[in-house]
Design goal:
By secondary structure, the protein is of the alpha/beta class. The protein has six helices and twelve strands. The longest helix is centred in the middle third of the chain and has 13 residues. The chain is globular.
Length: 276
């Protein structure tokens, strides 16, 4: 998974992916502030992939034209309110509400102009309906820009508001309601999102980025920003998050800092149930 890119994407990242050769690459949005060159670069990656756009991807254009141009370019890769399936991988991805800015439920003018004045009930129904098209016997990943409400209201919670006091739960209400409805017929294995940066506002520490709920669903925040640094030798390192799923179960999760040759320089392990 590639967290919020915010324009930081290039040849180094493509080299990393070529070295690692992942089964599936997920992008959680905020690719840029409307730069379609990054969306175009993603479409050219030679791997299965899925994208959901974030609040920054509308490029500050309330008309929705910038957003629409990216949606046209991404075409079938964008999974907002949709179900994507790769038979050879045996995994389904369902997209949540596109271009979310968190904070419960709010639609920007750009989103209204592109998708219409969607209500919270309609958004919930779209997420649930997309999930019903997924096979029940294969893992389900929900891909969102912002995570759901209900995962904590502290500033360092996985979706907690850290830039303004008091700290509150800044997740998406429609996604939380949709997950509750989905649980009536199945349990999602993994919910992947970004939006809430790992580094807290004004040096306030580091956010919690991984969580398992009482039903066994894992939640992963991939928004490591900035996602590119240099090591002591001047080598460029890019941040990706990795999840391994075996026999329908999440067995490994980590944030990785990787050199362009694919060498993992630093690994923050979040879960490791691998055998051997």
């Amino acid at each position: 998974m590639a967290g919020d890119l915010h324009g930081v994407w290039g040849e180094e990242d493509q080299l990393v992916l070529s070295a690692l050769h992942p089964d599936l690459v997920l992008f959680v949005g905020d690719l840029s502030d409307g730069d379609i060159r990054i969306a175009k670069s993603i479409t050219q990656l030679p791997f299965p992939k899925a994208v959901i756009l974030g609040n920054h991807d509308r490029g500050g254009d309330p008309s929705g034209n910038v957003l629409q141009s990216q949606l046209r370019l991404l075409a079938g890769l964008h999974c907002g309110w949709k179900h994507l399936y790769w038979e050879e991988l045996g995994v389904s991805v369902v997209g949540a509400r596109p271009c979310s800015g968190g904070g419960g439920f709010h639609l920007s003018e750009a989103v209204k102009n592109v998708f219409g004045p969607i209500t919270i009930e309609e958004s919930v129904d779209r997420i649930v309906s997309a999930t019903k098209r997924a096979q029940e016997d294969i893992p389900l990943i929900i891909l969102a820009h912002s995570g759901p409400t209900g995962l904590g209201s502290d500033s360092n919670s996985i979706c907690g508001r850290d830039w303004k006091k008091p700290a509150i739960d800044w997740g998406d209400k429609d996604l939380a309601l949709a997950i509750d409805k989905i649980r009536e017929f199945r349990n999602p294995e993994l919910v992947v999102f970004g939006h809430m940066h790992h580094q807290l506002y004004r040096g306030g520490g580091i956010r919690k980025t991984f969580y398992k709920d009482q039903f066994g669903t894992f939640y992963l925040n991939t928004a490591c920003v900035p996602r590119r640094v240099k090591d002591r030798d001047g080598n460029i390192l890019s941040c990706f998050s990795q999840v391994d799923i075996l026999e329908g179960k999440v067995i490994f999760a980590a944030h990785l800092w990787i050199a362009s040759n694919g060498r993992i320089v630093y690994q923050e392990t979040l879960l490791d149930k691998k055998i051997g």
